[in-house]
Design brief:
- Helix 1 runs parallel beside helix 9, helix 5 packs across helix 6 and helix 6 packs antiparallel against helix 7.
- The strands form four sheets. This protein has a five-stranded mixed beta sheet with strand order 10-9-13-11-12. Strands 1-3-2 form a three-stranded antiparallel beta sheet.
- By secondary structure, the chain is of the alpha/beta class.
- The chain binds guanosine-5'-triphosphate (GTP) and magnesium ion.
- The site of magnesium ion has 4 residues, from helix 1.
- Guanosine-5'-triphosphate binds next to helix 1 and helix 9.
Length: 376
């Protein structure tokens, strides 16, 4: 998400290669675009000396690509929560997201309205966006609070629980409500702000980093907002060139290899990307934004359940078939339930990679391969 014209659809297309409309004017996107992108993580196959036959994901060169549903939404402008621009419609599209990537035009050539403006301070856009989302959440939580107060007259449940029931669609729990209530009452902006940080954590992508103005603004964006430098346009160009067999390119890497005949125009575009983006920032940053959101901001890890630890395979011989994204702190028994309620209910214990017995409370680590033992 982000303000109009910041490069959201370009970023989305670079990740998914779904053909969406991209243009240099605001509100190009109206209806959200849906697609599948891939978080990437080192696959245990390398260390195990195994050859994978993945089912729910892909493995290329020892890197596992795990599918993630992503959404490209309409641009947000100041006043969106009151219906300005494409307004509430856009905000409601955010309900289903676990995390947000704010695609920010770091060059300062587009203001928060999505209009061209030289020397606009992109840091202001971050504030605009956060407060719009806070206001939107406040509207929802204030309504939910009023409703909860009415219900509490007939049901003898604590208000926090009733409110959590009302806000469960946003992924909010009773614990979250209690934490937010320390900041303000449920009709206050601080309450909404705490809930936003919990339910919709935001990663800032400093986009258009190929432009010199963005490079000038980047240092401050990084130190104040942990922004990640990215050029959606460069990533899209590299992926398109790779699709047409002109180059070999692994998304997220700092290099590419020319493999096909290039026109002068293509050659200079690729040289520009190499010099201005890859050599300066280490990658185009697009894959890194997705990975940072999933693994650092949302705190997910990847685990690989198998049925046979000797072969690292499922019952049908597929080696390391499924990569599961789970929150840090997930236990073996919780993983069993995530895979299937039958596996959870008949859970007996498990085996670790080094074939040691592990129990229900074993806390999974990133890259773990585990065998789950069930009652037959
Ligand atoms: N230089 C540069 N331009 C970019 C980059 N990413 C996107 N653009 C350009 O920015 C303009 C807007 O791109 P879109 O992807 O349509 O932006 P959007 O945020 O989806 O816009 P709306 O749907 O109108 O909200 C287009 O002219 C893109 O080519 C980038 O990394 N670098
Ligand atoms: Mg768009």
């Amino acid at each position: 998400m982000g303000c109009p014209n910041s490069g959201k659809s370009t970023f989305f297309k670079a990740l998914t290669l779904v053909n969406v409309e991209i243009a240099s004017y605001p509100f190009t996107t109206i209806q959200p675009n849906q697609g599948v992108a891939f978080a990437s993580s080192e696959c245990p196959c390398k260390k195990l000396g195994a050859i994978c036959s993945p089912k729910n994901s892909r493995c290329e060169g020892g890197i596992r690509y795990i599918p993630i549903r992503i959404l490209d939404v309409a641009g947000l402008v100041p006043g969106a929560h009151e219906g300005k621009g494409l307004g509430n419609q856009f905000l409601n599209d955010l309900t289903q997201a676990s995390g947000l990537i704010h695609v920010l035009d770091a060059s300062g050539k587009t203001n928060a309205e999505g209009r061209p403006e030289n020397g606009w301070d992109p840091e202001k856009t971050i504030g605009v966006l956060e407060s719009e989302i806070d206001e939107w959440i406040r509207d929802i939580s204030a309504k939910a609070f009023q409703k909860s107060k009415i219900i509490s007259k007939t049901q003898k449940k604590p208000i926090e629980r009733l409110l959590a029931d009302q806000l469960s669609g946003l992924g909010i729990t009773e614990e979250h409500i209690k934490k937010a209530m320390k900041a303000s009452d449920p009709e206050g902006l601080e309450f909404a702000s705490v809930l936003r940080k919990i339910s919709k954590p935001i990663l800032t992508a400093a986009n258009k980093i190929d432009l010199p103005e963005a490079q000038e603004n980047f240092h401050s964006l990084k130190s104040k907002f942990h922004a990640i430098p990215c050029s959606a346009e460069a990533e899209l160009a590299l992926k398109e060139a790779a699709k047409h067999s002109l180059i070999n390119y692994v998304p997220g890497s700092r290099n590419f290899e020319v493999t096909g005949p290039l026109s002068d125009k293509q050659k200079s575009a690729l040289d520009f990307i190499r010099r201005n983006v890859l050599e300066k920032f280490g990658s185009t940053g697009v894959q890194s934004c997705l990975n940072t959101l999933i693994f650092d901001v949302l705190g997910m890890i990847v685990v690989y359940p198998v049925a046979d630890m000797n072969k690292h395979s499922d019952q049908h011989g597929h080696v390391l078939p499924d990569a599961h994204l789970v929150p840090k702190g997930t236990t073996l028994k919780e993983l069993a339930f995530r895979i299937h309620s039958d596996i959870g209910e008949n859970f007996l214990g498990g085996l670790s990679q080094d074939r040691k017995k592990i129990g229900a409370e074993y806390e999974l680590k990133d890259g773990d391969v585990v065998e789950i033992l069930v009652r037959r």
